[in-house]
Amino acid sequence: MSILIDASTTFIVQGITGREAVNLTRECLDYGTGAKIVGGVTPGRLGRDVHGVPVFDTVAQAVEHHGAPIDGSVVTVPPAFTKDAVFEAIENGIKLVVIVTERIPRRDVAQMVELATLRGARIIGPNCLGIIVPDVIKMGGIGGPAKNAAQAYTPGPIGVISRSGGMTTEMSSTLSAAGLGQSTAVSIGGDAIIGSTYAELMPLFEADEQTRGIVIYTEPGGRMEAELSRWVTENSSRLPIVAFMAGRFMDEMPGMSFGHAGTIVEGKEDTAGEKIERLAQAGIRVAERIEDIPTMISEQIESRAGA
Amino acid sequence: MRADGTFIAVEVEDAAAGDTELARRLAEACPVDIFLASDSGVALVDGNLDECVLCRLCLDAAGARGAGSPVKIIKLYDDGALLD
Amino acid sequence: MRFFEFEAREVVRRAGIPVTDYGFTTDPAEAKAIAERIGGPTVIKSQVLTGGRMKAGGVKFADTPGEAEAHAAEILELEINGHMPRGVLVDPRAEVEQEYYAGVVWDGTRKQPVMIFSPVGGIDIEQVAEEQPDKVGRRHFSNILPLSDFQAKEVIASTGVTGSDLNRLVPIVLRLARLFVENDMVLAEINPLGRLADGSFVALDAHMDIENEARGRHKKLLADLGVGEEETRQAREATPFELAGEEVDAQDHRGVAGNVTEFDGDLGLVIGAGGGSLTLFDAVRAHGGRPANYCEIGGNPSVAKACGLAKLVLSKPGVDKIAVMMSIVSNTRVDIVARGVIKACLELGLDPAEKIAIFRIPGAWEEEGFKILERYGVDYADRSVSLNEAARRAVEKIQGAPAR
């Protein structure tokens, strides 16, 4: 199985006529068993189509045309319009919103996340590449064109969660090359506030029988790793976790932000060194190099199976 | 070993170069503005040649691919292979 | 982006929170005039975006306007932690009975803002939290529901403050929370918040930090405060090399080839994307390499931009070779980056085969990209070579290179 999405998941693309969205739509339609993209929304473009996907002015029109609730939406509209687009999706009954857009102010993100929580919906991102279930479906630009995605991602027992879109693919490719496929890979986004953190996705992986281990990519900034450590300790998770921490050099440069907006170190707890220590305390092994990850996670899966 | 930093060449057949309608279509199709449409036909923007993304939209606009096309996209880094 | 104290205090004043009758100036004579207007003892405070100004001699007390002028002249010339002051604040020395703390920050785990209040002010709130945890109150508030007085009342009361102090503090803390939300702040702090002899409260110092992504919707405020659009106020000021990197990135709107940070090594880096750059920078250093810079490529930049970035790095004094490396790309194209970096070498009259220590970008359009690299004799690697191994090879090459 997988988490969040499967072959039957229906979704729309908000902002579908934009340059990147057109590509993303093509990629998702081509990948795996072919995503069920039941509509696209761009205000003022009702009646057009993008790669055969009908375009509507509103989410409500897309839902009406589909004739049933729609599971998800990929939102790729400019930052100033993202909050409204996400509110529109949630208020029209959509339960899974993947936000691709970068550079959205934190206040807007926090408002979207709070509305989602009130309505029982989930947000992935912003500033993310989405979700992929190898050989089945992808929702978002993750892995790129179908051909490229197929090269990097293979089905298997590892759940991948990453604050960097590109590194989701890099790590999955390394796992695949070592014969370790992925159950689901999720690019959760690089911002300071995101819809779904490691700890918030763990219960889903925990409940997924296919998943036997977790690999995460992490960076300085924020308290997400501390939250994960706490979750793992409190819930005595059955899943071993291997983490890769990038940006160790940033510890020498307080106050500077590199890579993603979320990497700004605002306190001692946010530094790479501090995070590595915290993860280790929770029994999460931290890899020095990406190529060490497959062996580390295999060993841990085996040792738990033997225990 | 190659030593010049040009990667793409574009040729428009003489017979087609004065076609203002083709010029308009090419200018509209190209995402990186290689073609310029004017009253006298097609002009090439040399500074944008290397920005070519090999998308073939110009070939489609010209209505033919490969050797038969009035527009030829040449990969200089690939022994002058034609994009078709 | 951080505000200077004089700007932060103005933001506080506009929000309806009482402040002292201070003045800001860059001129010692004017400092004297302000002190005369205030008409009593004053404090002269350096306006710098760095901590420890008190220790560094950036805060001085004056009993007369003449003294204020002399102190201002001194402080205006005083560099603190590498920062020259923007000016000085001339502040009346208030008769404070007690110092409090009020602040609002984001809680990324709860995904809500949190009001923080303490009757122990004037020192770092982290220190108070450690030493007297019962003296620090915290209260999250909704992003969607309207702010209400009781929320401020609860956080203040939770620290044991009651009586008329409580009632006078409620509107101040509530206004601070509102200011935080309305101005897209990531930090809004009044410390100390002083209680004067007559029982009234006044903000004696303030720290404000506005979110960079939201600057666009606060143009008026920023213009009123005189903050230039080009001001980034990073922890250290941008170097000419970094500014040149911004120019490269701004030349067109296709993708990113920038976010340059200068270092003093000999190995130029043309790397990406966000996470890949962090990983690669660490890897180069782990192998004993000395990077000349940090940067990021992503979002499929134009050939011209990739070329501009590579040229900038290649032209940096002390750079002997560049390493062009990214995590597997799906949006950025291998062939486009290959064209850009090769072009950069050739336009500078350099041999790409010699100057590019390694090219490790697998992914979208790699067949085409590798074809180009082969043609120019550039050493390249596909995805079977890890980021770490690519970094090792680059370092090895540069350390084996003959000194120039």
3D shape of chain B: globular
CATH C-level class of chain B:
Alpha Beta
The largest interface is:
A-C, 67 and 54 residues
Order of helices and strands of chain B: EHHEEHEE
Number of structural units classed as domains of chain A:
1
What report would you give on this structure?
The complex is a heterotrimer of chains A (307), B (84) and C (404). Chain A contains ten helices and 14 strands. Chain A has helices at 19-30, 59-66, 79-91, 106-119, 146-152, 165-177, 198-206, 224-235, 272-281, 293-306; strands at residues 10-14, 36-41, 49-50, 53-56, 72-75, 96-99, 122-124, 130-133, 137-139, 155-162, 182-187, 213-218, 241-245, 285-287. In chain A, the strands form two sheets. A seven-stranded mixed beta sheet of chain A has the order 3-4-2-1-5-6-7, with helices on both faces. Chain A has a seven-stranded mixed beta sheet with strand order 9-8-11-10-12-13-14, sandwiched between helices. In chain A, α7 (198-206) packs parallel to α8 and α8 runs parallel beside α9. Chain B has 84 residues and is α+β, with helices and mostly antiparallel strands. In chain B, the strands form two sheets. A three-stranded antiparallel beta sheet of chain B has the order 1-4-5. Chain B has a two-stranded antiparallel sheet with strand order 2-3. With 404 residues, chain C is an alpha+beta fold. Chain C has three domains: 21-92, 2-Layer Sandwich (Dna Ligase, domain 1); 96-225, D-amino Acid Aminotransferase, Chain A, domain 1; 240-400, Succinyl-CoA synthetase domains (Rossmann fold, 3-Layer(aba) Sandwich). Chain C is 38% helix and 22% strand. Chain C has helices at residues 5-14, 28-38, 65-76, 125-131, 149-157, 163-182, 219-225, 240-250, 274-286, 303-314, 334-347, 352-355, 366-375, 387-400, and strands at residues 23-25, 42-46, 59-62, 88-92, 96-107, 112-118, 137-140, 185-196, 201-203, 206-210, 256-262, 267-272, 293-298, 321-326, 356-360. In chain C, strands 5, 6, 7, 8, 9 and 10 form a six-stranded antiparallel beta sheet that branches. A four-stranded antiparallel beta sheet of chain C has the order 1-4-2-3, with helices on one face. In chain C, α8 (240-250) runs antiparallel to α10 and α9 crosses α14. Chain C is elongated. Chain C starts with a helix and ends with a helix. Chains in contact: A-C, B-C. At the A-C interface, α4, α5, α6 and α8 of A face α9, β13 and α14 of C.
